[in-house]
Write a structure and sequence with these properties.
heterodimer, A: 74 residues, alpha+beta, two-stranded antiparallel ribbon, 2 strands, 66% helix, elongated, B: 173 residues, mainly beta, Jelly Rolls, eight-stranded antiparallel β-sheet, four-stranded antiparallel β-sheet, 12 strands
């Protein structure tokens, strides 16, 4: 059983309460949302790395040396 | 400059718990500060993020974080996460807890509520993404006075036993 803790600052009372079905569903939604967000970030990072590699290859084909390409990228 | 810190309430978890809420927060202070020593049970990860719900609301939340870990320094936007990636999780060094502070200015005003937070996830490892430290700016775009704060794992996980949270009221800040 998953619980939540509630501290009533006016009385000092601490309650440990089982999550409702709605709250459990909200946790599952948070997990799914986070996983989707992470997947999107990884996809964006992969696309950015691919674009960088492509740009470097094109610069190299134009005759730039590796050090010249590195100087441009910095 | 704050000249008073008054402990309003504190809690230590006796068991793994989904969230920690402070309710009926008195309106007698200027600012609020929460100090957390927490660890997430998120499986297969060294870190998690700390989410905050103000007055039970899951709307109108936005933020920005500057963070660094063992292989990168970067920034990103956030929504629910009042502290991004600073919450230590299951695969980090055993029995380590994150130190996270969350500060809210003028919590009873009718303006939007701004928060600042800093945190670090403890982990004795040099592996990539093994430990995070970050500073966060976060906003709850709502004019209501703050009466409750609820902290959760942003990934839908829980805080482990012995996690603690201390809520302080600050006057004359």
């Amino acid at each position: 059983m998953t619980t939540k803790l509630i501290v009533d600052c006016s009385t000092g009372e601490v309650q440990e309460i089982a999550l409702t079905a709605e709250e459990i569903a909200e946790r599952e939604a948070m997990a799914a949302e986070y996983a989707a967000q992470k997947a999107q970030e990884e996809a964006e990072a992969t696309a950015k790395a691919a674009a960088k590699a492509s740009a470097e290859a094109k610069l190299s084909a134009l005759g730039l040396s590796a050090s010249e390409i590195a100087a441009l990228i910095k | 400059m704050a000249n008073t810190y008054t402990l309003i309430a504190s809690v230590t978890l006796n068991t793994t718990t989904a969230s920690i809420s402070f309710t009926s927060i008195p309106a007698t202070f200027t600012d609020l500060c929460v100090l957390l020593s927490v660890r997430s049970n998120r499986a297969g990860a060294t870190n998690d993020s700390l989410a905050l719900e103000v007055n039970g609301s899951t709307s109108n939340r936005s933020g920005r974080v500057l963070y660094g870990n063992s292989n990168v320094a970067a920034s990103t936007t956030t929504t629910s996460e009042v502290n991004y990636a600073g919450l230590v999780a299951s695969t980090a060094t055993a029995n380590t807890f994150s130190n996270i502070s969350v500060y809210c200015s003028n919590y009873t005003s009718s303006n939007y509520k701004s928060f600042s937070s800093d945190g670090v996830s403890e982990n004795n490892s040099s592996a990539a993404d093994s430990a995070f430290a970050g500073i966060n700016a976060w906003l709850w775009s709502d004019s209501a006075a703050i009466t409750s704060l609820t902290f959760k794992s942003a990934t839908g996980n829980s805080f482990v036993q012995y996690s603690t949270a201390y809520l302080y009221g600050i006057s004359n800040a």
